[in-house]
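Q: Here's a chain of 266 amino acids. Please give me its 3D structure as tokens.
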Amino acid sequence: MKPGFRLVLAATLACSAAAHAAEPLTQTTISVRSAGKEVAAWAFPIGAKVELSAVGNTETRTARGMRFTGNVMGRIIAPAGETIVYGDDIELVTADISPEHARAVHDLEAMTGPDQQYRGRMAEGRELTQDEWKLQTAIDVANMRRLAQILDTFGWPGVRFAGRASQTAFLVLQHADHDSQRTYLPLLRDAVKRNDALGAHLAMLEDRVRLADGKKQLYGTQLSGNPPRFDPIEDEARVDARRAAIGLPPLAEYAKMFGVSYPTAP
């Protein structure tokens, strides 16, 4: 355990817009900190009942939560089971979220299946027909229209905001038109800086936008042609350093996924 390890458990409270408004929903996220910096985060589905009990050198309780500091050991009970936690600082906090927030998460979750409705068939080794691509494109346009509303209202829906559906937000943008990708790329950059989105997602979107703008890619995530080959890479001798900085394996290792041979950069 590194010095300064900190675990923060934040439970956010949402008021239902339906008849059960008196029974607020809860959304629980867990953040892990080391030396004051957040290094990981988890999110439970909206409505999941999560309990925290812990002991530590110091215990502080308020009307909105609780905090344990100094040689903390605790227990989290969630729908998936029980987890034992320990570290230096554990905090439980509640905050309000709006019905619009809950609706946005619901809508993101609903996009997951349609995003792969037709293109997912390519994983079975067959090409889509022209009609299938038209149907998938119509779905992509509708998904991006709703995602744009969410992005314009809330910013990037990271793990704290949307939990597992945060990945769906990336997939929808990855399959959207170039103007949308360029417009919302800065939001994903900011989310990665605050450890609220995956660096791998940012690398793929950065490379796609740069190539579409006639520039060389930075991370080597994009290949084209048959047999596949890497599209041009900026300052290729340092590509592995850039990949490592954002959490990606060396390019030679990545190339093996596509059956491509790639020499290690000097």
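Q: Can you summarize the key feature?
A: The chain has eight helices and nine strands.
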